[in-house]
TrEMBL record:
Keywords: Cell membrane, Disulfide bond, Ion channel, Ion transport, Membrane, Sodium, Sodium channel, Sodium transport, Transmembrane, Transmembrane helix, Transport. Belongs to the amiloride-sensitive sodium channel (TC 1.A.6) family. SCNN1G subfamily. It catalyses: Na(+)(in) = Na(+)(out). Pfam families: ASC (PF00858). It comes from the Eukaryota. This is Amiloride-sensitive sodium channel subunit gamma. One of its GO terms (cellular component) is sodium channel complex. Its main location: membrane. It is found in: Apical cell membrane. One of its GO terms (molecular function) is ligand-gated sodium channel activity. The keyword Membrane applies.
Amino acid sequence: RIVVSRGRLRRLLWIVLTLSAVVLILWQCAELLMNYYSASVSVTVQFQKLPFPAVTICNINPYKYSAMKEYLYELDKETKKALETFYGFSEGKSKVRRSVDDWNSTGSDFFEQIPLLKVEDFSRTATELHSGQKRKIEGSVFHKDSSIVNSGDSNDIIGFQLCDANNSSECALYTFSSGVNAIQEWYKLHYMNIMAQIPLEIKEKLSYSAEDLLLTCFFDGLSCDKRHFTRFHHPLHGNCYTFNSGESGTILSTSTGGSEYGLQVVLYIDEADYNPFLVTSTGAKIMIHDQNEYPFIEDIGTEIETAAATSIGMHFTQSRKLSKPYSDCTETGADIPVENLYNKSYSLQICLHSCFQKAMVESCGCAQYAQPLPAGAEYCNYKKNPNWMYCYYRLHEKFVKEQLGCQQICKDACSFKEWALTTSIAQWPSVVSEDWMLRVLSWDKGQKLNKKLNKTDLANLMVFYKDLNERYISENPANTLVILLSNFGGQLGLWMSCSVVCVIEIVEVFFIDSLSIVLRHQWQRAKKWWSGRQQGRAARATASDVERQGHENHACVDEDLPTFTTALRLPLPQDSPLPRTPPPNYSTLRLETAFTEQLPDTLELSQH
């Protein structure tokens, strides 16, 4: 039978509770440290005068088809032949005269190398468009349409085959379930090759001028014109014009919300001069962005239609995230090992496009036409780079599958501006106002237009702030050193009733006092060592003095007479005996008797 006293039980319980409190405190502190780099989001709304964003406007058709026909003669001819062969569609022969520069002198030969194919029942055989002959399909087959969509009869599969110019056995067949998609993709492929060979100055003349695109302009209730627009050439959209680009050093702002105080423009689309094979929709593309941001029209542009008034209301939001160690974003992009080819502020899209273009130049030896040209590189074309199509498609496939490493290298920007758009569309002009408005706009167009305007050639655009509330979203550190210490003190007070004074006393007892004891002990040892060292030096100095002055009797130096003990402590001579004080003659102390003979009584005692 085990008997436990109440005192022991009380002490055991106290120890268990103390250990439990310590464990809880340590666990809470560990959790606080693990969640130290966490952020809280704050939203601030301010009503103030807002800067107006840059508005970039492009015609969906990049170049006037009437001016481009001479460069696209062979390509259009092959495309019409494909329509006639596969679908029985035929047109009259083109009366367009060939260009004297003969841009497509090698185009026909290359069309024969990369013709449109009609795949028959996935049997690895296909019919060529140009010759009508059947060929054996080598290499992999890539279906460009979604596998979810029903592709229909396999006899309707149309595509084209790309092969490595250095190795004919390396081929890839790209098929499409829709003939429209196949013809457009094939046409764009050859179209980019042709445009890459035309100088920039000529392409700017082939595209739309500001006078061609803009009919009327109003901003904040005041009239504006082409001087408020800045032109820049986009590879896929031709001449684009940016309102309020900020290149002049002035950024326009607005102090009133509503459609009447924003940007209002009427655009001339000229649908009759569209390229029928390159674009299949009519209208314009716009993008609202910051002045330091590059407008990626082809990626996130908003399309507006003709014969309609498109109203775009905006809400402005500015966001900022914390950089490392709170999130994996970059402030300026300087820490990203990818060259910025766009000469604009860093963004994720700029990084991805620049990374792909760099990989294109390294792998294929030339640059892709739709992106800016790196230093020392040139755009791909048939004449200098006959293998660029196959290389481009293979590289793009790796990029989509995130095998190039661009998605892993590129990061989001920590700060960015965003305009949330709300779009509404109304019929424009109305039936009752159509006649007089078209007449007036035709008269405003003047001598540059030889026909009456049609409402399908016009588009009305309005861009404005719905309100002047600026929303600022920011991340702030959820924990600081002060908050961490406060939470730690709260845990100590909750579980151990411990205050700051208690913590200071604990630190004083366990650290300061212990340190002072250790330092005092070390000081005593050092002091003792120093004393011994000083005594040793004194002894050595005394010995050296004796050697210099000769040996002398130390007993005679002292004022007191030497004793027997001090005499024995005198140093011994090394070579010759030193003169010493003779010891006392102890024989003088012997008692001399006055009797010469021993007395008889003493003799008897000795005998006994």
